[in-house]
Write a structure and sequence with these properties.
alpha+beta; Helix Hairpins; Heat Shock Protein 90; 3 domains; two-stranded antiparallel sheet; 7 strands; elongated
Length: 370
């Protein structure tokens, strides 16, 4: 698609009842003209100062060699010639400088107007003086980032709509079946409806947590916490599902681990998510090992399973929002939220996996930040 065709088509978010493309308003044009008038006035002042300096220099030189005192007419001719020469030279220099300055700046201003109209694909040529090239480079970077953010926003909206559609469709179908008498109005049907509403509630809460963490506005309620005990509780909570699947789960932590300031609810959410993934993707007869280690700088929580592992492609996108591997039944937000929560504590989460050889996850929480 050519630039002209892209220009004629409005972006997806543009209101259908407004004309496209949006023309620059009268205030925008007034602002541009005001800017160039001020630049012209400043340039005129610089020109006059240069002319005055040139005349003064020539007059001083003429006086030193005796031309001014010996011949007033010669002094006038020299002064006029100096003024004309200075004006001509300064005008040429000023014209060239203004051209070199105004053209790149005008391109950036025009591109900025197009970005304001929603055309994030616009780029400007990096030319002119070093400050102008730096301005163009910064503008191009900004436009690319805006384009990326706009694409991510559209993708997120599509993914959210897709994830919400499935449980809503199930709930709607169940309710219609109950009203039409297709399904019996018993506890089993109501229980299935309740399960679907829980899925919806969890998805909404995950989206809220994700939005807060990515915006940097997530509030952590830190308190001194025994990490070993917290992880042990999470392991015991996951042991029931692990046993029903025929998966052995073990926990190991050395004695004497010191408490650290964390948000226990959020860290429990991180560990619970990792354990849930490990249990779901470990076949019967497999095992899951959970370990807690502490050194001088960090508290490390390791979750290692002997499950199906991940392909190289899935591993590269494991922390992407809504990315799900083959056969995954989750929302695709768990690892993304886990990483954001760990980073909110100043830590980092590292994932290593290989298809058919299990997955190893390490959560490192810095002690110095507590």
């Amino acid at each position: 698609m050519t630039w002209t065709e892209r220009r004629r088509r409005p972006p997806s978010w543009w209101p259908g009842n407004e004309p496209w493309p949006m023309r620059a308003s009268r205030d925008q044009w007034r602002g541009r003209m005001r800017f160039f008038r001020r630049m012209a006035f400043l340039s005129l002042l610089v020109l006059l100062a240069g002319v005055g300096a040139a005349i003064a220099l020539v007059w001083t030189a003429a006086a030193r060699i005796g031309i001014v005192a010996g011949s007033p007419a010669g002094a006038v001719v020299i002064a006029i010639g100096a003024m004309v020469g200075a004006l001509s030279t300064a005008a040429l220099i000023l014209a060239g400088g203004m051209r070199l300055f105004a053209r790149p700046l005008g391109e950036v201003m025009e591109a900025a107007s197009r970005v304001a109209d929603g055309d994030y694909a616009v780029q400007v040529a990096e030319r002119g003086a070093p400050p102008l090239r730096g301005l163009a480079r910064a503008f191009n970077t900004m436009a690319r980032r805006l384009a990326d953010h706009d694409r991510l926003r559209r993708d997120l909206m599509a993914d959210v709509a897709h994830e919400l559609r499935t449980p809503l469709t199930v709930v709607q179908g169940k309710l219609e079946g109950l009203l039409d008498g297709v399904y019996a109005r018993d506890d089993r049907q109501l229980g299935e409806l309740l399960d679907e509403t829980r899925i919806l509630a969890r998805l909404v809460e995950d989206l809220r947590t994700l939005a807060l963490s990515e915006a940097g506005t997530l509030t952590l309620q830190k308190e001194p916490t025994d990490i070993a005990e917290l992880v042990d509780e999470s392991v015991r909570a996951a042991s029931g599902e692990a046993a029903s699947r025929g998966v052995a789960i073990g926990f190991d932590a050395p004695p004497g681990i010191e408490p650290m300031d964390v948000d226990p609810v959020r860290i429990r959410e991180v560990i619970g998510n990792l354990l849930t993934n490990a249990v779901r993707h470990t076949p019967a007869g497999g095992s899951i090992e959970v370990r807690v280690r502490q050194d001088r700088t960090s508290m490390d929580i390791e979750v290692r399973d002997s499950g199906e592992g991940m392909s190289a492609e899935d591993l590269a996108h494991a922390f992407d929002r809504f990315h799900k591997g083959a056969g995954s039944r989750g929302s695709g937000l768990g690892l993304t939220i886990a990483r954001n929560l760990v980073r909110a504590h100043g830590g980092e989460i590292v994932l290593a996996s290989e298809a058919g050889r299990g997955t190893h996850v390490v959560v490192s929480l810095p002690l110095a930040a507590n």
